[in-house]
Design goal:
18 helices, single chain, globular, mainly alpha
């Protein structure tokens, strides 16, 4: 266990630990963003995999996530070591994920179905490494502080690093990859090195993290899963955040197609991502203030509405041009910044609330289920966009054999990036109304019992 001596007060987290924890967000953001952004178009436009099959290959490995993430959550809940319950598993993931990530984009001498199978198998291995790291990583904020608003402040630092990592994923990764096997191979190796450095940095940077969580773990996996299934705040939070993640996943998969076929500029993928992540770098203090002013649920409602509005407005891009499209994405980015910060802060609240009510440490299973569903939903966003392209008659190709897309495919590119995610995000806004874990309820749950 981590020594209590390393914790000056259960309510505050030192700047060094905040930075050490935050740097691990390069893993979260890069592994979520790069496959979501480039894996589909890598298969359809470089490896000549049919669009629907490519979308399925991206999604199917997520069935494994439902198993491995839950198991990793239980293992980390029950672990007792001098490194604490979470960090040994983070170390294992730090070894597996970077290697498999590099292999995923290695550009095998295969095309079509064999190439899809290769990518799918390596993606499963990468997902395993991601689970080993990400599940315990997400559980840590609930155990670093017992203060409701301090969690949001702590995660503000994480979101800044997420923004930087998304900018790298959305701007540098496409620029390096281009549309060639060699470009994708180089991109995979470079970002594998980024993952390795950031994940090890977070492992060592959280060595002196405070631990305010429950000391006793839930005895059985069945008991932990039952707790998650019967936690109304957790289920509603999972549902509303899944809707927002699905909307973001659809937009992420569609960005390269939108740049190439709507804006007629493949380089616009990078500028669109700059428009998306720019607000994340400058609006975090605003969202922290709004979370205090409106409570987290009110701020989450506002962020979902902004995300939906920006996506829906972008449908008029063919009429108003590239500048208009980028301004719409800025609005999406403001909403997305709030969704990211508040979602993780509210997850930490749910874990802390469960620990206070039950007296058990089972946050790992909560985050395991969360991460499994989050990964599956984001990958399903790629499948949804791939299905939209298929309905529109999109024709897959490789660089040596370019094709001209039909008008219906060009319409599907736009609708898939705008109307579809806007409607999904609005469903998340409606579900947010059912979430009821407020600051007052948290205070009652964590208040000392009268003697």
């Amino acid at each position: 266990m981590i020594s209590p001596a390393a914790t000056p007060t259960p309510l505050t987290v030192s700047r060094g630990v905040r930075l050490g924890y935050a740097v691990g967000s390069f893993c979260t953001a890069n592994f979520s963003a790069i496959p979501g952004l480039l894996l589909l178009i890598y298969m359809t436009d470089v490896l000549a995999v049919p669009a629907l099959l490519a979308g399925i290959i991206v999604f199917l490995p997520k069935a494994w996530d439902l198993v491995i993430n839950t198991l990793v959550g239980q293992w980390s809940d029950r672990t007792v070591s001098r490194w604490g319950p979470r960090r040994p598993w983070m170390l294992a993931g730090s070894i597996i994920l970077p290697l498999s990530f590099g292999l995923m984009f290695i550009g095998p001498p295969l095309t079509g179905v064999p190439a899809a199978l290769f990518v799918g198998v390596v993606f499963v291995v990468a997902a395993t490494g991601y689970a080993l790291y990400e599940v315990p990583y997400k559980a840590m904020p609930a155990e670093m502080t017992s203060d409701y608003h301090e969690r949001t402040s702590l995660l503000q630092w994480r979101m800044v690093f997420v923004a930087i990592a998304i900018a790298m994923s959305g701007i540098l990764a496409p620029a390096i990859a281009g549309k060639s096997v060699e470009g994708y191979r180089q991109m995979g190796l470079i970002f594998a090195a980024v993952l390795l450095v950031s994940m090890f940095g977070s492992f060592f940077g959280t060595a002196r993290a405070p631990f305010t969580g429950q000391q006793e773990a839930e005895g059985t996996l069945r008991g932990q899963l039952a707790a998650a299934r019967t936690s109304k705040p957790f289920l509603w939070l999972l549902a509303l955040c899944s809707a927002q993640t699905l909307a973001a996943g659809v937009m992420l998969a569609g960005a390269p197609y939108f740049a190439a076929y709507t804006l007629k500029n493949t380089g616009a993928t990078s500028t669109l991502f700059a428009a998306l992540v720019g607000p994340m770098l400058v609006t975090m203090p605003l969202w922290v203030w709004l979370a205090r002013r409106l409570d987290k649920r009110g701020a989450m409602l506002l962020s979902g509405v902004l995300f939906s509005a920006g996506a829906l407005l972008a449908v008029a891009t063919p009429l108003f041009g590239a500048l208009y499209a980028h301004l719409c994405v800025v609005l999406v980015g403001v909403g997305y910044a709030g969704l990211q910060l508040l979602g993780f802060s509210m997850l930490a609240d749910v874990i802390a609330y469960d620990g206070a009510v039950s007296g058990k440490r089972r946050g790992g299973v909560f985050t395991g289920l969360w991460t499994a569903v989050e990964s599956a939903v984001q990958a399903f966003g790629v499948t949804v966009y791939g299905a939209a392209l298929t309905i529109g008659g999109f024709i897959s190709s490789d660089p040596a054999n370019p094709v001209t897309q039909p008008a219906s495919a060009l319409t599907a590119v736009i609708v898939g990036l705008t109307v579809v995610p806007a409607l999904i995000a609005l469903a998340g806004v409606i579900m947010t109304l059912k979430y009821d874990l407020s600051a007052e309820r948290m205070a009652r749950a964590t208040a000392p019992s009268p003697s």
